[in-house]
Amino acid sequence: MITVTAQLKKLRMSPKKVRLVLDVVRGLRVAVAEERLTFMKRGACDPVLKLLRSAIANAVHNHKARPETLRIAGLRADGGATQKRWRPRAHGRAFPVRQRTSQITMVLKGEAEGATAEAKVEAAEPEKK
After folding, report:
1. 15-25 and 45-63 helices, crossing angle to 10°
2. Are 73 and 108 in contact (CB under 8 A)?
3. From CA 2, how far away is CA 122, in angstroms rounded?
4. 37 within 8 A of 23, measured Cβ to Cβ
5. Can you tell me the distance from the alpha carbon of 101 to that of 9, in angstroms, rounded to the nearest whole number?
6. Residue 9, helix vs strand vs coil
7. What tens-digit pLDDT sequence spans the chain (129 residues)?
8. pTM (predicted TM-score)
9. Domain boundaries, the chain
10. Any idea which architecture 2-124 has in CATH?
11. How many angstroms separate the CA atoms of 48 and 66, rounded?
12. Among the four residues 27, 54, 97, 117, which has the most C-beta atoms within 10 Å?
């Protein structure tokens, strides 16, 4: 069993909007998640899809993972740095504007190419004393 982590930092979108997309694909196989993200009409789908494809490529290249066994094990959208700006209002007043950013963390789990049936059984059953 392998675990691959990918992160996207400083995404110029609020975490609340990103979490709406992450809730749809959390826990799915990567092929199904990629298909859903392709056809969703939310602004956060494009960066999340790009992050998913990057995580898949990292798992295949670095850990020799089989793409058909990969599953999204963890997804999290945290708030990043908030840019503070001012908007002019009537009568010379100023109104604060908070431009929020997000940090997305994605964890994939799957099997490597050389994984045998015995290794799967040993990983599934803890050693008895």
Report:
1. 60
2. yes
3. 14
4. no
5. 8
6. strand
7. 899 999 999 999 999 999 999 999 999 999 999 999 999 999 999 999 999 999 999 999 999 999 999 999 999 999 999 999 999 999 999 999 999 999 999 999 999 887 655 555 555 566 655
8. 0.83
9. 2-124
10. Alpha-Beta Complex (3.90)
11. 21
12. 54
- For residues 59 and 108, the answer to whether their CB atoms sit within 8 Å is yes
Distance CA(102)–CA(11), nearest Å, equals 5
Helix (H, G, I), strand (E, B) or coil at 19: helix
The amino acid occupying position 54 is S
Which residues are CB-contacts of 70 (< 8 A; sequence separation ≥ 6)? 4, 29, 30, 56, 59, 108, 109, 110
CA distance 77 to 2: 22
